[in-house]
Amino acid sequence: MQLRKIKRALLSVSDKSNLIPLAQGLHDLGVELISTGGTGRALQEAKIPYTDIQAVTGNPEAFGGRMKTISFQIGSALLFDRERDAQEAQNLKIEGIDLVVCNLYPFQKVQEAGADFPTLIENIDIGGPTMIRAAAKNFKDVAVLVQSSDYEGFLAELQSQNGQTSLALRQQLMAKAFNHTADYDARIAMRMDEELGKKSLRLSFKQGRSLRYGENSHQAAGFYRENSSALSLADIRILHGKALSYNNLLDVQGAVDAVQGLGGQAVAVVKHSNPCGLAKSMDQRTALEAAWSGDPISAFGSIIAFNQPLELKTAEFFQLDAEDRSQRKFVEVVIAPKITAEALEYLQQHKNLRVLELDIAGLEKAVDYRYLSGSLLVQEADLALYNQQESVTARPFPSDEAAKGLVEFGLQAIKSIKSNAIVLVQAVNQQQYRILGMGAGQPNRLVATKLAIEKAKENLQREGAEDVAGILGQCYLVSDAFFPFADNVELAAQAGIRYILQPGGSIRDKSVIAACDQADIAMLFTGLRHFKH
Amino acid sequence: MQLRKIKRALLSVSDKSNLIPLAQGLHDLGVELISTGGTGRALQEAKIPYTDIQAVTGNPEAFGGRMKTISFQIGSALLFDRERDAQEAQNLKIEGIDLVVCNLYPFQKVQEAGADFPTLIENIDIGGPTMIRAAAKNFKDVAVLVQSSDYEGFLAELQSQNGQTSLALRQQLMAKAFNHTADYDARIAMRMDEELGKKSLRLSFKQGRSLRYGENSHQAAGFYRENSSALSLADIRILHGKALSYNNLLDVQGAVDAVQGLGGQAVAVVKHSNPCGLAKSMDQRTALEAAWSGDPISAFGSIIAFNQPLELKTAEFFQLDAEDRSQRKFVEVVIAPKITAEALEYLQQHKNLRVLELDIAGLEKAVDYRYLSGSLLVQEADLALYNQQESVTARPFPSDEAAKGLVEFGLQAIKSIKSNAIVLVQAVNQQQYRILGMGAGQPNRLVATKLAIEKAKENLQREGAEDVAGILGQCYLVSDAFFPFADNVELAAQAGIRYILQPGGSIRDKSVIAACDQADIAMLFTGLRHFKH
């Protein structure tokens, strides 16, 4: 355990929260408190006795507070080796300090408050990091607290250990301290670069865990939580099933993104990051059935996300208890903001199914990073749907509420599909939309259009639709980018498509619109491309 | 300019390189040198006079060297405001120090050398960061040098400015100093976490520049270079054309990855990150033609990478000077390890073509990062091709050199294509391979197979091949993952395919092999999946 009694503690905090209970607790344990000016005044008000740091250093607080703690006396008291250097310390009249409680000038806070540059500079703490780092280096004998939320637990530990700390605790505090100073200087460095017109970026991740492997079994892999994230994909709660794999996590992101912008009851069925099924309805079970019907073959082994708490009735769609095993619908992952107890019990019948909870709506995704060899692409997330809705054809694109609903659903869908992407969306009724067919990831847009139409036809035929072309004539075909040529329109016209959405903006828009007019197709320009790679 | 004369400098360096010329130069400019122990001995040997730091601090070097510089005297000399605090400094007998030259205990070096934990702890510098950060905070008056490679330029500046530094220089040095301490503590923090069995990760990027926009015009974007990278995609040299866009950079990565593992003359034609064309030959022009022929429609507007210096004869394939404009082959980006002067001159005819140089072979890509909402996936790059080559069918898969060449080419190709992926590769002759057709990014593998076969047929027909099925019978069909069912084999058999490569490992391998035997197809199990998302 290598227990060390805390006899003297140095308190120098910028954030005074939780200070008094800690100081009182330390005092009650017989610890001598040393304190700097502001911290000392707080102790005085609480009638907790302390030694002013000037009495220890022999120096005044000087230069507008820039010099308070930096001194041979404090540095030595924290750094000397309690065994090796004991005699030397005695000769030099250095008495050890066994605990540092310090938090730093709030550089981040004043930065976020929009402080001017001189104020920022004044808020770069020099003495604080010196004490923290000195104490941390000498963790063999010294403890360090850098966060006010840690005080209570620390004091409890101390009280239970007769005023002593264990080596394990001191080592944990040490690691935390170096993370703290690393974060602090990272923020300062970025801001100082910015002031010089240089852009630098420091990202920090923790809670890393090993994954069984990466995209393939010969690739070692891990998963980390971003330090600064309020809510992270790493916060997923696994209610049932094995640990998530690398590919699961990629697909979960795709599924979560796909349902995130949708209201009502939304369900995404994802395979290889692409939603091969997506639907929205007032009823969850109906939405799942509709999403599943977008590609009932690929849906096997898929990742499925719900934007609302998952109900038993919905989960029963998977028929996990069907006697005929071929009726059982195996999926890899089910994720929802909440899984009801009954749904969970039902899903647990399948050993290999992963059942996850995550506050999907709360997941912020303002920024997107993409790592390329030795470099990083950064971009704002693609959050907008359109910046105009302009009917550009002789046949007007409808603008009633029903049409708007399907337009928005179609744009949400296309935003989630990898480029080049085409999706056909259907309003099964006023309150129910689904992907009827989609084409993803094609070098050639025409092939994506073909894939979407073929899948839609296949789905309708399987469902026994009598008037396939008639139904396709009610669907909206959505393109993630403009049509470079009229060929896509001609292909769509042949299949009976009557409504097309696209950003517009090609030099050949005229001929594309002419092809629409020729085929009596209504076309809407949205003004916004949705490439996704 | 806010010039500041350097009167006193503090030298305390762990890395002694370039020290003496700097010290001599400072001395010649009349600067008083203050030095710690080891640095002082180096000065003494070089017969450069200096003041021992103990004479300034009034304290001994103590505790095995843990205490050398931390003191009220040094802290004050660096931190006091030369205007506001001048009188106070005089009262306290503090004389300013105007320059700190300091590099830190080599924590990283001893870590990489495999030092034990106590040695690592001893190599955490406390005094150094204190001096560096104090000098940096007070950059209004004080300069700081943290890297020996900066000494020479700094001295030259000083000599040209009559021993003075400008505010601009001091501010640059300040930003560098905080980057240095941020890097230092980042490394310590990660190592200390590791010691506790915790995994944390800190990534650092610099040289950030804004891109016109991200994947789409409504997304702001930037591109950064990774600090620790020896060679980065950000090191691309643009010889001609506009700045690279976000999507260009994504595609360049795809194109570079696709040619990187290939010998001979290799060319990749990339659209939306996927190589729709890839070829290898002994002749570069031939390779380009073969790669282009993989999808001559999608190739327009593509990104093209070469693994060897680009020659004029190759570049002329684009026919940028054709009188018939429809003959001109427009591509977005051409990248090669080198662009010959003649090729560059030719390519410059096209204003919008970007011509890039990068040492593609030298680009290391051992680790892959993937950012998900508030989290990070990390994996080893997919570098291996196969871990076995097992013929599993009645008809044996050939194992001669020619077959091996095409197998390796096919695996290189499939590794670069997004999943689910199928590629058909052809040996045009013993020394020339190409992608004949590929299917990428499909939720359903069967669709990928269909796409690859259709594209291959289309290409052969366009080329006027007489015996399409006969040629397909010589091609290798490569799957990035195992076949879950025999249907893919049946589809391939119908098209006349006789050779299939796949990892194997499905519970239905038996029925897949049986389908091969039925169709007299030879199948090779490679044992390695190549998912890419």
* Strand order, sheet with most strands of chain A: 10-15-14-13-11-12-20-19-21-22-23-18
Which CATH first-tier class of the largest domain in chain A would you pick?
Alpha Beta
Estimated share of beta-strand residues of chain A: 15-25%
Poorly predicted spans of chain A? none
- Coarse structural class of chain A: alpha/beta
Number of strands of chain A: 23
- Domain count of chain A, please report it: 3
Q: Averaging pLDDT over every residue of chain A, what do you get?
A: 97
Helical content of chain A, roughly? 25-40%
Summed up, the helix count of chain A is 19
Query: What is the subunit arrangement here?
Result: homodimer
Largest sheet of chain A: 12 strands, mixed
Count interface residues per chain for the largest interface.
Answer: A-B, 133 and 132 residues
CATH superfamily of the largest domain in chain A: Methylglyoxal synthase-like domain
CATH architecture designation of the largest domain in chain A: 3-Layer(aba) Sandwich
Radius of gyration of chain A: 31 Å
The CATH topology of the largest domain in chain A, please? Rossmann fold
